[in-house]
Amino acid sequence: MKSVYLDMDPGHDDVLALLVALTAFHVKGVTTVAGNQTVDKTYRNARRVLDLAHYEAISVHQGYAHPLFRPLVTASHVHGSSGLDGYRFHPRTREDEILDDAQMWLASEFLHEPDPITWIATGPLTNVAAFLMGNTHFIPHIERLAIMGGSLNKGNITPYAEFNFYVDPDAADWVLASGIPIRLVGLDVTHKALLSPEALERFLTWGSEVGTMLHDIFTFYFDHEPDAGPGGAPVHDVLAVAAVAHPEFFSWQPMNIRVERCHDVHRGQVIVVPGSGVDDRGVEVAIDIDVDRFFSWMWEMLDPYSR
Ligand code: BDR
Ligand code: CA
Q1: Dmax (CA) of the chain
Q2: From which residue to which does any coiled coil extend (predicted)?
Q3: Is the per-residue pLDDT at 280 higher than 70?
Q4: Residue 169 and which of 21, 54, 211, 296 are 20 to 30 A apart at CA?
């Protein structure tokens, strides 16, 4: 089974990404970043979900509390004040043991990693960029980085920008220019993959605690995600997991892209560099998705939580 490292800011849709990654891959550990909420909360949410799903042995490591060069903007309008509103987790004593060592942990893990590294990032790219800036010698060892972020068309936090790229455009721009082989999954495809309202009932029929948690958090998410509608709500982050597990679910286009860092109004917007199409920096951008194949795989990966 392929090993992966996860960097995330849970976050309702990050939770789905985490649960699917746990059954699809060997997850080596999770680093958390500030984004949907402050980093203490995204850390706590990751820890709580792993414990609830009986993955207590997977370690969580807290990373950056704010973007590289800017104040933090959170998405509490989507994810609530906890970052994962909708479900009341049982208090656990382990939550007090915060490991705020993401950068050190990654360095030690990557140093001892015998295989080429696969990394999946579903929050602002602060941890990833900071790590790579300080550890450029690891860049050749990264086989693939799958990212949920950006949009070739309209944004979701501004008319131009997707949330993860908006929060830390400096990190996003640096990572995309790093030369690492990247699969980028943005709103152009995540807005096609809608979790239907019937899925909420399906979670409940499982009769498991994970099913109840997913039902409750996604009930909240359906009411708060601005792009949710009668057809359902976009699942965003789990598509970055699918991009590693099943790239054939997507249509990919090599592109040379940057992220706007300076202009206030266009902050975080994806810019396709003129002459793009000659893939000189390794960024493959998802431009379409086979939604039916993706969802049937997603439910298969979630099946172990139904018991
Ligand atoms: C992204 O922003 C966050 O709110 C979600 O978790 C996802 O990573 C979608 O724009
Ligand atoms: Ca996220």
Answers
A1: 55
A2: none
A3: no
A4: 21
* Cα of 57 from ligand 2 centre, angstroms: 22
Atom of ligand 1 lying closest to residue 11 CA: 6
Is ligand 1 within 6 A of the CB of residue 237? yes
Which residues, at least 6 apart from 34, have a Cβ–Cβ distance to it below 8 Å? Answer: 9, 42, 64, 65, 66, 67, 72, 74, 123, 124, 126, 167
Ligand 1 close to Cβ of residue 188 (< 6 A): no
The whole-model pTM stands at 0.96
Catalytic annotation present for 266 = no
For the chain, the domains span 3-305
**pLDDT tens per residue, range 36-80:** 999 999 999 999 999 999 999 999 999 999 999 999 999 999 999
In this predicted structure, the answer to whether residue 286 has a pLDDT above a threshold of 90 is yes
Q: How many CB atoms lie within 10 A of CB 109?
A: 17
Confidence bin at 99 (pLDDT 50/70/90): confident
> Cα dist. 147→44, 187, 197, 200 in Å?
22, 11, 26, 26
Which residues have CB atoms below 5 A from the ion given as ligand 2? 9, 11, 14, 122-123, 237
Q: Label residue 297 by pLDDT band (50, 70, 90).
A: very high
Please state the rounded mean pLDDT for residues 129-144. Answer: 96
Note the pLDDT of residue 62.
Answer: 97
Q: What single-letter DSSP state applies at residue 232? A: B
Pick the CATH number of 3-305 from 3.90.245.10, 1.10.10.10, 3.80.10.10, 3.40.190.10: 3.90.245.10
Structural contact between residues 295 and 205, judged by C-beta atoms closer than 8 angstroms = no
Per the residue annotation, which of 12, 79, 236, 266 is the catalytic one?
236
